[in-house]
Amino acid sequence: MDQSSTSSDSSGFKKQSTSSDEDRGFYVEADVFVDEYVAGSSLDLDPGDRMVATREYYGSDDAVERISFQNPGQRMAGVEENEQKGHPSEDLDEHEQSTLTGTIVEDMPASTKKCSGCGANFHCKDSSLPGFVPLEILEKIDRKSSSYHHQQSLCKRCHLLQEHNFLLNVNVCDVDYGRMMSELKKQPESLVVLVVDVTDLPGSIYPKLAQIVGARRPMIVVGNKVDLLPPDAKTGYMWRFKKTVERAVEKAGLLEHFNILHTALVSAKTGYGIEELITEIYLKYTNVKLGMRGDIFLVGCTNAGKSTMFNALLQSDLCKVRAVDLVDRATTSIWPGTTISLLKFPVMKPGPYRLEMRRRRLLTHRAWNKKEMYARKLLLAETGDDRYAIPTSVIQNTYKDSEEELQPMALRELQGEDEETEAERKNEEKRKYSLDDPIFAKGKWCYDTPGTVNENQVLSLFTLDELVNVTPRRVLKPRTCLVKAGESLLIGGVGRIDIESIAGYSNVLLTTFANDQLPLNVMPTHEVEEFYRKWLGTPALVVPQGDTKRMASWPGLEGGRRFDMKGRRDEGCCDIVLSSIGWVMVTSEKDVVLNAFAPANKGITARVQPILPYSASLRGKRLPGSQFYKVQPIEFPVNVRRKRAEARKRAEKKKEREEELHNL
């Protein structure tokens, strides 16, 4: 695996460019990034795990003598490995064969079978593209007649990501979205589930979606990654989150072209809101006979969480029980472009009996959820740990246990076999079913589609090292600073807010919601350019970083947009959104004129109704000698009306007891 950094062309797709001799990668443990840049190189990996050939051969296949040249930095073991001819042993599975050095054949056509992790067609043309497997494994996959075997096969990239937690920098080829989404135009009754990132609105909404998938069709809008938003200072913040998503969808013009059935807030990572989303699909997208009206397509921009949503729905009541174990979970990673082709699973038909079973389970789960929420509030107050502020829920399959109970007892079970034989029997039973069986043929399907590219997103401008420090992965804590007219706020090296003027003598509070790794600096506006040039590419600004070649490709913070905002009392007056980076809420009682800057001047928008309008009041004491305020631990807001009602009830009960004692 050669170390590679990424840049983007005008279409937004990534290109691969070699920047040094060492490999780079990272893996994710829970919500923590673990970097292994220095710990190893390509020489420490098995030959089959390298994405480049160890030797290059010159000469035709029927030549008497062939000349081989060893590539730089590769082991001598490649000589014996590459000289072995023939096919690997049929007793080895695909993952065991990945330890052998494979053959790359550029002129060989791609296979019709697809990787169950990323959905790309298997091929042996280019090791840097998704779907690559060596020629030996590709021939074995093509020889498999059973669809179950190739359904469980992974390409080398997905295998490294799932088995070794190692993410490769790969070239993502230009995908023809019109061709891949043509299936939706043929099905006018199919349901479009639009997945948007609530931390990147409106950047994660593709404005030309109606032209690609066709207009006048039912749609459900899903605001994902709600677990990254902190609670506001006042109650009702979930309702305000939902209204923000609805206003962004309306502003993008989707309300005019689609029949929006419902808007939901979910967290595919923690399971929050998934069960409610499935209930809305059953209520609003079924016909008179309680059958699904059409197929379901998960659509959205890159990095919106579609693959994570697909994995969550796969384990829920929306998927048929017999298909749960047949469909592998989609390979998910932070880098856009993980889903290449259409992954799918069959949708369960919600009959009356099944709906009643599901209703009873949800009622039982609701009581447990209330107790869990109360316990999390107590733990958050005691420990101050942000984990207890994240909305969570459990995703279950109501029909899985009942389906197994309804199956007749086999003769082997009556004869009492040992555990090892029973395990083998279960594996054989799983292989009897495949997604091509007639029991799934006439049903409806749920598809995970590739991410569309939004020209306002700046994710493709960052390298993998920089993307780790830019993309939010934890709860976004509000960081507030006091800024005067003629001063600027610099967010790492990726964002800048200049306060041009303020009506009257007043100050402005700027509350930043971005990755904690990005440092904040406040300084006079006339000093920003010199400061930026001095520290660009150094750890002082965190992003961007790199050598002279990387800094030459960095677009910089040029151009900018000017905004005139009306002041408001006791709440924020506007959100300045920097797509893929975060947003800055402006709080001022007076009118403010400011300028906003972002990389390549892309993705800068103003949100008139802030998503967290009261978050400035969550700041702590002002730090001595600084314009910043202390970041307070996250707390749930107090429902003032409920507290007053409870106090009023206690006062009435106390008064009644005093009257009873007085009468006695």
UniProtKB/TrEMBL annotation:
CDD domains: YqeH. It comes from the Eukaryota. One of its GO terms (molecular function) is GTP binding. Residues 296-343 form the G domain. Residues 1-25, 75-97, 645-664 are annotated as: Disordered. Signal peptide: none annotated. This is G domain-containing protein. It comes from Caenorhabditis nigoni. The lineage of its organism: Eukaryota, Metazoa, Ecdysozoa, Nematoda, Chromadorea.
